[in-house]
Amino acid sequence: IETVEAGDPWNSWILRLRANGSLGGEERTSAYSISGSISANRTTEDLKTEIWTYGHYSESSFELSDGSTTTGLRRDYGASLLQVWSLGEHWSAGGEASARHSLFGNYDLRAWVAPALEFSVWPYTESTRRQLTFLYALGVQHSDYVEVTIFGETQETRPAHSLFAGLSMKEPWGNATVGFEAFQYLHDPERHRLELFGWLSVRLLRGLDFNVNGRVARVKDQINLRAGEATDEEILLRQRELGTDFRFELSFGLSYRFGSIYNNAVNPRFEALD
């Protein structure tokens, strides 16, 4: 009897859908938000391709003292592409391209293209249980702004570089990551950002994970800020990005993964850019 190997209708691609939401309010205020993303990943031992797109929508309503109601909206969306080639047990080379639209961030369009190089302290073959990597990227950012910035720019193209350092540990119950990122514009070294981040993923069922993500940052790279003072309404409804020296956030949600059952390749390279 001839044995025929079953074909892979997904061609080794794995898809992941994410969705998050929140709802809250009281007598004179209400707010809700929804966000989601779709990612596609194709991984082999020598090549890694990731495509990611996302969207976010939020709405807040407030009843003022005169009885009128004011409403604030935020919409953000974007996409990115990551391509990575293996260069042995400790080195990888690749690049990232991304585009984003954000009225809050004053971006009609922000495009970023950067080649990168990564070094892994432990061989990549040990990534199923531990990984310590350093990744350096040197690229160009082009920005078209919605309104003129505090530096008098309506559009600009700036070179920048970044360094990632990350430690990941994987266990039967899930995985955890902690890392550090430094980013700097080359045209003005004072414009930089330092960030500490962490990620925890706990397996609930096959393909279904509970995720917690947090980060804290020192912020000095806000070249995109709108010129002029923000109005009370813009501050209250978070309709524009404000100048700050620090930032922190904590988020959580569920993710579900499905796709090719034949793709067993492990390629942890450039996970800092995933």
Give the percentage of residues in beta strands.
over 45%
- Rounded to the nearest angstrom, the distance between the terminal CA atoms is 45 Å
Rg from Cα:
21 Å
Low-confidence stretches: 1-5
Mean pLDDT: 88
The residue fraction in helices comes out at under 10%
Major β-sheet profile: 12 strands, antiparallel, barrel
Shape: globular
> H/E order of the elements?
EEEEEEEEEEEHE
Please give a handful of descriptors for the protein shown:
single chain; 274 residues; mainly beta; twelve-stranded antiparallel β-barrel; 2% helix; globular; disordered N terminus
Protein model, in words:
This protein has a twelve-stranded antiparallel beta barrel with strand order 1-2-3-4-5-6-7-8-9-10-11-12. It has one helix spanning 232-236, and strands at residues 13-25, 29-43, 47-63, 69-86, 91-102, 107-120, 130-145, 155-171, 174-185, 192-205, 208-219, 246-259. 2% of the residues lie in helices and 64% in strands. The relative contact order is 0.17. It contains one helix and twelve strands. The model is unreliable at 1-5 (pLDDT under 50). By secondary structure, the chain is mainly beta.
